Amino acid sequence: MRIGLVGVGRIGAFHAATLKGLPAVEQVVMADADASRAELTAKELGAEFAPDVPALLASGIDGLVIAAATSAHAELIEAAVAAGITTFCEKPVALDLAETQRVVELVEGSDVPVHIGFQRRFDAGYQAAAQQVRSGELGYVHHIRANTNDAFPPPAGYIPTSGGFFRDCTVHDFDIIRYVTGREVVSVYATGANRGESFFGEYGDVDAAAALLTLDDGTFVAVSGTRYNAAGHDVRMEVLGSLGSIAVGLDEHTALRSVEAGVTFPGGDPHTTFMDRFRSAYVAELTAFTEVVAGTRDVPCTVRDALQAFRIADACELSRSENRFVRLEEIGR
């Protein structure tokens, strides 16, 4: 199959290289707002180049991967749906809730499959956790702890269009909590602070945050994160149940060290980026997308899944800004 790709920045180039290595993909066709960058990247990867998005959509592609700037996601999804092309789009669907809801209605009113990129759903550890939680092996779950700690912050220019810490960073935790538990969040209380570079505060954002979520079965979830975790990129989840407790991301690469005498675990090198931490998950995710394109698999992460995670992020941002408890019923549909 021929897969089109829009956006050849860091994650776009990474996806293009992954797609080139998949047996089902015969060719990748690339486009970017900077046509010269797309042409150069295509030449480096042995891919095809399209001068713009209309040319890409008309180039006989079977599926489209959207890795462009967030501000372009909604427009590109709409164009792909209009062209009848099965689409994969990195999260989020759009910059705000209203536009996200509009795109959800558009996609759900069509017969075009649209797969949203939340790669943690394809990580073996999170999949194992979901199986144990849903099978009842852990008994009833009473607490979950989830964290996303980046080793270093993004550049200042990224922050104005990122959507903020909850919508950009911990939204991955919100999605994977729904995936692992099969439950919905009903309320949140969140807080945050700017502990590092001043540019976060200049754009009304934070670089460290925490939230307490309550699920519809009464489970408590503590979510935390930071843009400054010098020990390494650290993404983990702990699930505490009445019959047992498990952890995802607790291995030789965990970015922690024990101060207890004689303890040498973990002994490996910490991950430095999310692409390093989730490399296998990204391959599995794009493999799943090729199966969606081929019609042999249903969409594993829908636009409505993305909307639900975005609603939780919006609730956390409202809670942080107004310093109050927020119920999810206050946030959109």
UniProtKB/TrEMBL annotation:
Q: Does Ribonucleoprotein show up as a keyword for this record?
A: no
GO terms of molecular function: inositol 2-dehydrogenase (NAD+) activity; nucleotide binding
Q: Name one Pfam family in it.
A: GFO_IDH_MocA_C3
Superkingdom of the source species: Bacteria
**Does the keyword Oxidoreductase feature in the UniProt annotation?**
yes
Q: Which PANTHER family match?
A: BINDING ROSSMANN FOLD OXIDOREDUCTASE, PUTATIVE (AFU_ORTHOLOGUE AFUA_2G10240)-RELATED, NAD(P)-BINDING ROSSMANN-FOLD SUPERFAMILY PROTEIN-RELATED
From the Swiss-Prot or TrEMBL record, give the protein name.
Answer: Myo-inositol 2-dehydrogenase/D-chiro-inositol 1-dehydrogenase
Please report the organism this UniProt entry assigns to the protein. Kribbella italica
